[in-house]
């Protein structure tokens, strides 16, 4: 039994604890060959546990195992520790975290991972090189401090992102924080978000013309609005749908120009139901919401959503959160002060780029510019103490892979700078060309083609060395790097973006990057850049220099980079890139055949299948897998002599199996046992769909009888019930297979 399970039992929300217990049981079942690998893969992905690649021995040499898969062969025996390693993603809604939460994540990184916390472009934290067997304990320790990993990945609702300056920004309409949190709570584990063909990414923005939440590049985006209605001011949102980057970026469309704060959750639920019902399931390449919106058109999609919305049964949670909106209001931990004539070396440059004066006079938000989004365990522990000292425990991650400290007294800035500088977290250049965003690329991602982190690190080093001599127009540019065409590094919305690809020279693979120009970061990712040509990876820094220097030299007045690129034209851009496209022979310069941060010749042979959304697994398969996990847990409880627990879990296993069938028909039952049994009886027992050739519905009575019993369980009754639960689950499988066969025949 887990050493953490009992000690943390009363500190984790009950439903979270049960889900983790269930996941732990599914891991054991998979190890024994009792769960199909595809189903288990989607199960672990929905708990945030990814597979990763290990082809780059440079950074992680000597840390755990190398060149292992995660996890495919899990049947090595009950006492074997799997060598397979992966990545654990941790959800931080709108990037918010406390010092205590940071400390716990640092402890986990130290004990289970490689000593690094990685901030992602969705304001999450990722830990790499995790053993799958350690994930349940890891999840329990996170749950004890209010953090979940549920639906951090998989075909579900991903982390809800929002502007890290929400609540302190000068130009926001209102603080979107409580609304982002309300959406996170409402959709976490909701039945209507379990049947997606791919992921759905939501985002909130308080400002229309800044970058903020980048709502125009998201599946669902919420832009804060205030309208005068019935003589009073009402908060709400302009809602965008169908945005997304990926291979082919789509600009989001306006679903509604205004939905009130008391209705936006219901509207979102309707969107999710339409997507779950009509979205592509078989072809993963067209399974995102953006393709559904594009296929049916925004007018028809709007009609479908409104029709669904009107038919939704009322849910009190749509409005219940409004009573506690003000619980997210923040206030300083001590009075502000002023400072004059600071002589600390480096302070002025850091203050210029990393300090944002809040709309609350006398206070500032400070950005920690994290190279490649990484922060070490030791830095994290010390940072937690710094946050407690200078702020009211207010800290948020950003989509540019940084951390923002809020409510810092301006009088404390010099002292804070010194404290941060002592641990290497006072690097200037936040939100500038030096602050480069990058996806993991070939370091750990199975889809990575080129070393995005390696290139980003090299660009950052070269730019930082020239930072004092850079023209201000160049400093304000955004550079973003992805390891492949999927835009996890947001290259489409950068002024200058790079994404990894490959070319061949004399029969050898050569790492390349495609250059993407003219994206718009502001206006909430207002427009996307276009690829203009591929260059060898080793020449990418020279390309960046050539473009930025020419822009500084040729721009007219205050002409921005996007306008300059448009005026320059594609022919002239191609001429600018042409000198950097040549690849020398291997004998002349072998460095061109080695990617940044690597030591080996470049190869494409180790590309794998991406796990960003997993394979499409039926809703029935996912839910019946949970039923199997509960039945297994019931068996364990029976072996331990825990009669009450065994009885309850066997009963819940049958309920879950029945619910699996009910949900496969898109019927709403929630988690109410009476509703589940009633709908199962009506649609599967009374119609004889659940009947097979021999049992004639006998197995259904196992559920019906246990559902109505009030008799105290005994060891014998539990033994019978555990056996019956497994038979009920098998009958559910048979019923699903029969329905699938009938559907194929039509």
CATH-level-4 superfamily name of the largest domain: Sulfite Reductase Hemoprotein, domain 1
**Could you say what the CATH architecture of the largest domain is?**
2-Layer Sandwich
How are the strands of the largest sheet arranged? 1-2-5-4-13
Strand coverage percent:
5-15%
What number of domains? 5
Q: What is the C-alpha radius of gyration, as a whole number of Å?
A: 27 Å
The coarse overall form would be: globular
Number of strands: 20
Count, helices:
24
Unreliable segments of 5+ consecutive residues: 55-83
- CATH top level class name of the largest domain: Alpha Beta
Taking the sheet with the most strands, its summary is: 5 strands, antiparallel
Helix-and-strand structural type: alpha+beta
The CATH topology assignment of the largest domain is Sulfite Reductase Hemoprotein, domain 1
Mean pLDDT reading: 87
Give the terminus-to-terminus CA distance. 49 Å
Structural features, described:
With 746 residues, the protein is of the alpha+beta class. It folds into 5 domains: 9-143, Alpha-Beta Plaits; 169-328, Sulfite Reductase Hemoprotein, domain 1; 347-422, Sulfite Reductase Hemoprotein, domain 2, CATH 3.90.480; 437-593, Sulfite Reductase Hemoprotein, domain 1, CATH 3.30.413.10; 619-745, Nucleotidyltransferases  domain 2 (Four Helix Bundle (Hemerythrin (Met), subunit A), Up-down Bundle), CATH 1.20.120.330. Helix content is 39%, strand content 15%. The chain has 24 helices and 20 strands. The strands form 4 sheets. Strands 1-2-5-4-13 form a 5-stranded antiparallel sheet. Helix 4 packs antiparallel against helix 12, helix 20 runs antiparallel to helix 24 (715-745) and helix 23 (698-708) crosses helix 24 (715-745). The longest helix is centred in the C-terminal third of the chain and has 31 residues, at 715-745. The protein starts with 13 loop residues before the first helix and ends with a helix. 52% of the residues are buried. Residues 55-83 have low confidence and may be disordered.
């Amino acid at each position: 039994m887990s050493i953490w399970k009992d000690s943390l039992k009363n500190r984790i929300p009950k439903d979270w604890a049960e889900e983790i217990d269930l996941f732990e049981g599914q891991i054991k079942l998979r190890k024994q060959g009792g769960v199909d690998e595809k189903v288990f893969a989607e199960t672990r992905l929905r708990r945030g546990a990814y597979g990763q690649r290990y082809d780059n021995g440079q950074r992680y040499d000597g840390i755990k195992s190398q060149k292992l898969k995660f996890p495919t062969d899990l049947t090595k025996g009950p006492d074997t520790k799997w060598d397979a390693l992966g990545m654990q993603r941790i959800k931080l809604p709108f990037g918010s975290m406390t010092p205590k939460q940071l400390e716990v994540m640092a402890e986990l990184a130290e004990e289970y991972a490689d000593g690094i916390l990685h901030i992602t472009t969705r304001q999450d934290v990722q830990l790499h090189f995790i053993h799958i067997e350690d994930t349940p304990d890891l999840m329990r320790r996170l749950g004890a401090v209010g953090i979940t990993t549920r639906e951090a990945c998989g075909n579900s609702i991903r982390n809800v992102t929002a502007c890290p300056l929400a609540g302190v920004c000068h130009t926001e309409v209102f603080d979107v924080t409580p609304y982002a949190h309300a959406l996170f709570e409402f959709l976490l584990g909701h039945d209507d978000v379990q049947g997606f063909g791919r992921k759905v990414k939501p985002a909130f923005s308080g400002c229309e013309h800044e970058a903020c939440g980048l709502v125009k590049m998201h599946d669902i985006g919420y832009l804060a609005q205030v309208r005068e209605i019935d003589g009073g001011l009402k908060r709400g949102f302009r809602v965008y749908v169908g945005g997304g980057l990926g291979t082919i970026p789509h600009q989001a469309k306006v679903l509604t120009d205004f939905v009130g704060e008391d209705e936006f959750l219901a509207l979102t639920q309707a969107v999710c139901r339409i997507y779950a019902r009509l979205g592509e399931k078989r072809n993963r390449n067209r399974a995102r919401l953006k393709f559904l919106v594009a296929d049916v058109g925004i007018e028809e999609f709007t009609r479908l959503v409104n029709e669904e919305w009107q038919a939704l049964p009322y849910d009190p949670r749509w409005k219940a959160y409004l009573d506690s909106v003000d619980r997210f209001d923040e206030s300083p931990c001590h009075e502000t002060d002023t400072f004059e004539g600071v002589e600390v070396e480096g302070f002025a440059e850091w203050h210029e780029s990393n300090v944002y004066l809040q709309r609350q006079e006398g206070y500032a938000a400070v950005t920690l510019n994290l190279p490649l989004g990484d922060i070490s365990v030791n830095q994290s522990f010390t940072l937690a103490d710094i946050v407690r000292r200078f702020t009211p425990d207010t800290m948020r991650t950003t989509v540019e892979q940084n951390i923002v400290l809020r409510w810092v007294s301006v009088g404390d800035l010099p002292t804070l700078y010194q404290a941060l500088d002592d641990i290497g977290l006072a690097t200037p250049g936040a939100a500038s060309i030096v602050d480069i965003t990058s996806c993991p690329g070939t370091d750990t991602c199975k889809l990575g083609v080129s070393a995005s982190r390696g290139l980003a690190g090299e660009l950052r080093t070269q730019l930082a060395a020239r930072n004092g001599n850079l023209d201000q127009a160049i400093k304000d540019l955004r550079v973003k790097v992805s390891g492949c065409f999927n835009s996890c590094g947001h290259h489409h919305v950068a002024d200058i973006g790079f994404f990894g690809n490959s070319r061949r020279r004399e029969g050898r693979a050569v790492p390349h990057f495609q250059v993407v120009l003219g994206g718009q970061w502001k206006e909430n990712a207002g427009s996307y850049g276009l690829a203009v040509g591929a260059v060898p990876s080793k020449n990418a820094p020279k390309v960046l220099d050539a473009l930025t220097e020419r822009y500084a030299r040729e721009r007219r007045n205050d002409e921005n980079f996007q306008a300059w690129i448009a005026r320059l034209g594609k022919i002239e851009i191609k001429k600018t890139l042409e000198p950097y496209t040549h690849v020398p022979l291997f004998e002349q310069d072998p460095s061109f055949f080695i990617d940044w941060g690597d030591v080996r010749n470049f190869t494409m042979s180790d590309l794998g299948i991406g796990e960003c959304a997993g394979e499409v697994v039926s809703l029935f398969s996912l839910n019946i897998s949970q039923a199997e996990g509960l039945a297994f847990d019931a068996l364990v409880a029976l072996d331990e002599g825990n009669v009450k627990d065994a009885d309850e879990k066997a009963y819940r296993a049958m309920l879950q199996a029945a619910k699996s069938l009910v949900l496969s028909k898109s019927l709403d039952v929630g988690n109410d046992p009476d509703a589940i049994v009633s709908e199962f009886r009506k649609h599967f027992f009374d119609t004889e769909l659940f009947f097979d050739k021999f049992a004639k519905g006998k197995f259904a009575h196992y559920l019906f009888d246990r559902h109505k019993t009030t008799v105290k369980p005994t060891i014998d009754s539990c033994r019978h019930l555990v056996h019956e639960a497994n038979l009920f689950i098998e009958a559910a499988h048979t019923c699903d297979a029969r329905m699938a066969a009938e559907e194929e025949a039509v």
